[in-house]
Design goal:
By secondary structure, this protein is an all-beta fold. It contains no helices and 13 strands. The mean pLDDT is 88.
Length: 100
Amino acid sequence: MSINTNGGSTRVLINNTAIHKNFVGLNVQGSSNVQVNNSTISENLSTALALSGAAAARIGRSVIVNNLGAATTGNVLSYLDNQINGNAPDTTPATAGGYH
């Protein structure tokens, strides 16, 4: 799945979704803001969640497993309630804060 704003700004909510067996799981570019909740990103051939440019993603209550690339790259923030393992490598996103 790819999200690219091409100079604009986009806000996307991905909820209860499986992103499975693609080249890149979720590729976010430009100035997009993405929220991933209750979703699974697995068995992709490259990075599971890849961001570039000013793109930002927040991820909560989700699973990122068995991807052949890094779990996350770029500005990915976690609410610390995700399951991230079995990737090459298991990169850990920074804390998004706000989790109580």
